[in-house]
Amino acid sequence: MKMVSYYTLLGMILSAIVSCIFESDVNAWKLKHNMELILIVLTAIFGGVIRPNIQVWLSRMKGPLYMPQFKPFGIAFATTFGGCFFPNSLHYGSVIAASVIGMGYYTILYGEFKGDEDEKNYDESSDSLDKKIPLLQEKMEEV
């Protein structure tokens, strides 16, 4: 948890430095009571508090490979909401690239699931002599 905190703090400091360099107008930094402020607050609440807690809960309940399955859906939802509610435009190249990335991501997850199943089948079918023993444990048994 400390590592994530330091990573976030360092990212915030570097972002502030770069932002100050590129936007030196003080009036641009003032927050107004409009849709931008609501968006900032909701992003902080959902992105920093609710989403990580749900991810940890689901990882404990279903296993570590359950949550990564939904990453491409997050890309699709962000693209959809960006096109509907904000002045973002979609281009064919962006849609094709997102589709290719999503298919590649699911291919890797499929390989991981298959690897886990093969490993379970191997462990169940092998004799006790064929099981892998860590090197240090093997040495201690000999002594």
Q: Shape, please?
A: extended
Beta-strand residue percentage: under 5%
Number of helices in the DSSP assignment: 5
Unreliable spans: none
Give average pLDDT, whole number.
76
Q: How would you sum up the major sheet?
A: none
Number of strands: 0
Determine Rg (CA atoms, Å).
23 Å
Distance between the termini: 39 Å
Q: Roughly how much helix do the residues carry, as a percent range?
A: over 70%
Element pattern in H and E: HHHHH
How would you classify the helix and strand content by structural class? Answer: mainly alpha
GO molecular function: transmembrane transporter activity
Transmembrane segments: 38-58, 70-88
Protein name: WAT1-related protein
Organism: Trifolium subterraneum (Subterranean clover)
Search tags:
143 residues; mainly alpha
Describe the structure.
The longest helix is centred in the C-terminal third of the chain and has 34 residues, at 92-125. The protein has helices at 2-22, 35-62, 71-85, 92-125, 135-142. The chain is mostly helical and 143 residues long. It has five helices and no strands. 74% of the residues lie in helices and 0% in strands. It has a domain at 64-133.
